[in-house]
Design a protein that fits this description.
The chain is an alpha/beta fold. Helices cover 35% and strands 20% of the residues.
Length: 461
Amino acid sequence: MVHSIQNFEALACPEPVDGAENDLRRDALEIAEAGYAAINVGSAIERKMSIKNDVLQIMDGTSKATPQTKTYHLAGRRVFFVGIGKCALTAASAIEKLFGDTLTGGIAFDVSAEFLRKSDIHRNGGCLTSSSKIEVFIGTHPLPSEVNEQATKRIIEFLSDCREDDLVIFLISGGGSTLLCSPEAPMTPADESALFKELTAHGATIQDINTVRKHISSARGGGLARAAYPAEILSLIVSDVPGNDIAFISSGPTVQDSSTITDAKEVLARYNITISNITFIETPKEEKYFERVTNLLFLTSKDALDAMKDEAAKRGYETEIVDDHFSGEAREVGRAVVEKLHDASQKTALLYAGESTVTLREVRPPSQAGGRNQEIALASLETILDDEIILPFASDGHDNTDYAGAIGDSISRAHASEHNLSIAEYIVAHRSYEFFSITGDALSTGYTGSNISDLIIALKK
């Protein structure tokens, strides 16, 4: 069996540790695998979209209980695809397979250099395959760059040729905010990078960060809907934002924005950020740009949570989805999950989705990197019991590092003891990456082609 978690067996079957429960590890990892499978964008396109007799049908919504279908007539129309974010390339391959000759052209703007290394894109003139109609661009993330700026310019140019009878299918996924860099002079991508670093270091929420981002780029906050006007737009949105507010997912490039420049300035004031060289841009407010736009939540954390709940039930666990939009400081989230696990009955599975925050008190050298999921796992080691395990992980496989997350259990704690590591010292310094690199208890997935919120699995034997 091919696992999304590349080091699955190494984590499931570590060296024997007295008093440790390997079975809990395997259960947690298998439940995580079910979550990853449910949010694979390519599989979701095959599952939720079909074309018959020149009619596109798409399942509306992520609820299995009350699915509805939207239809789009394709005969005589030009059909374009624009994919943005961490799922763009995976989606582009599936869209091209689905539409075949019906697809007129497209652009996929992704962040994954790993995908690029494994492909023949360079040899195919910057397209997915030698016969592909989809141009491919790989941008930088999490910080914007001139590469992102140039690719965004190309997307806007591409959309500017759209006509009223055209259909543009967008796939919007996490990472798109960084990619859609289109500042107004004299502001530059480097200025935006400095601003993003400051907001992150001050613990700003994704909602606050994206409120600012929408007002420093002409492509965000409805900017791509304006660029594609007067075409009809179907925007498939993969949510990585707790609460699934589409206005904040990749800074809402096809969503009419209700915030203003004043709101963006208030965010900066709230975090005492006084960076210069910020050129603010008001987002498009005219109704005409959005009258023929359908923004559809295509994949959310619910898809992963439902699949993980089913897998946990198969393994005999009484399962509860505790929170589908958790937030807060990562270390406090980890401690709270473990505390709830202590009070749970035997054979219990607790599931969570959301996004925590790591607030840095001082600038760290690169060698002291960490990730919010790894910090959750690290904090759990303070009090986790022998019959408990916590597994926090990033759906995109990148927890601010090349790890997706880490395991918090008695085995991880024993590994730390073997290497004379102080859990408390590593928590204070936010050095979770270094910690789990030494203990060997981090998850590695590589490029997943998926991106919803972070996920947490907590099990009690």
